[in-house]
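Long-time lurker. I teach an intro course on protein structure, and each term I like to show students one example going from raw sequence to a predicted 3D structure in token notation. This year I'd like something fresh instead of my usual example. Would anyone be willing to generate the tokens for the chain below so I can use it in lecture? Attribution to the forum is fine with me.
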Amino acid sequence: MLFNSLEFAVFLIAVLIGHFWLIPRSAVRGRKIFLLAASYLFYASWNPFFSLLLAFSTGVDYSMGLALGGAASSARRRLYVSTSLVANLGLLGFYKYGFFVTEGAFALSGRTLAPGDLPWLEVALPVGISFYTFQSLSYTLDVYRRVQAPTRSLLDFALYVSFFPQLVAGPIVRAKELLGQLAGPRTSTPEDFELGLARVATGLVKKVLLADTIGVFVDAVFLDPGAYGGVEVALAIYGFAFQIFFDFAGYCDIAIGVARMLGVQLPENFDRPYRSLNVREFWRRWHITLSTWLRDYLYVSLGGNRKGAARTLTNLFATMLLGGLWHGAGWGFVLWGAYHGVLLGIHRVWRGPNAAPPRLPAWLRVVVTFHLVCVGWILFRSPTLESAGELVSRLGSTEFYGGLAFVQAAVALGIAAVVHVATGSRQLTDWLVARSAWLQGVVYAAVAWALYFMSGRTGEFIYFQF
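-- Reply from a regular --
Happy to contribute to a lecture. Here you go:
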């Protein structure tokens, strides 16, 4: 059930009517049960079996949270948090990395793993498993660190893990940010609904009109780079940078907007990342909830910057390497994470505590940072390392084929760049809600028409595969 589908629109209307109009405001528990059932129905629309995995993670972390709350000895506390880690990461590892690891082991032994040899490993990746396992696991880790009190309500915790607006692609929300909002009675004001609807509309525009229009050309070039010239390959590289941003940021806008309609506020996940002055700033602006998760639960756990310069650089590299692997079981993702780990290490050494301020003008630092990020996107997007090499080699080609898809992508990319530079996550929403009711109606009608017109060309969100 995609956000950019008529099916989801009908589902959302039914949820809003059932939650706010059919169930009395005083029936707090009834509203929670209804919203939990809706969330599981939403998730089961991909595959009913996936709901059992979601329930498994929920049950494990709820139980371990209670156990940690009542445990006094350090040994027992380590046992309980280890159980949560093994269960969550084991589930994630089997479904996401089982075939990748086994294939690598076969290659090291000189054997080739052919399709069908291990059918029990060739299973569908449960949508959103990387997101909800991190969200559920963060609760147990916070309880273990004594920064979060364990909840005794299974209903509240299950709703926190499965809350459908951000279930399959984030933002990754901590218990302290969301659990309390879902646990108590909630109301949705007319302002909440207006802001939420505007945020959904802007998210759909980003996804359908910008990301998907650019994506038609990007997908074709990355699939067969040898069929295109240097100008077209360059457009595809820049295009993917903006395609993935507007695709993912559009999803988050819709998630934040839908949650706001339900009286819940989710954290922002992007802050104009391509305006960053350096790579460190980029990671403070890109996929913010994942970046902070990796920082707080991985980088800090490895020692952070507390054990000397060499260990700090090692911790940075390891964090980004695992962050790349989090995105998918492939060498492109691994190398992408390693690449960013090296860039962050270089930046940290270059910008040491006694370093003088950089003399480069701000605009040049932004341009350099953007191009460094684009180099990484080549590894991230290319289906194989060989195709990544071929793509780069085609940059020197003087051939040019053009075509309608090229023109459409170039126009959409130009609009996307202007929108990204000129507006933040909420500026478009704030501008829209400040307009008159009739103008808002015109905008929403135009968005609805565009969705209908693009219905055959729009597809899944990129981050669904992670």
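Some talking points for your students: The mean pLDDT is 87. The chain has 18 helices and no strands.
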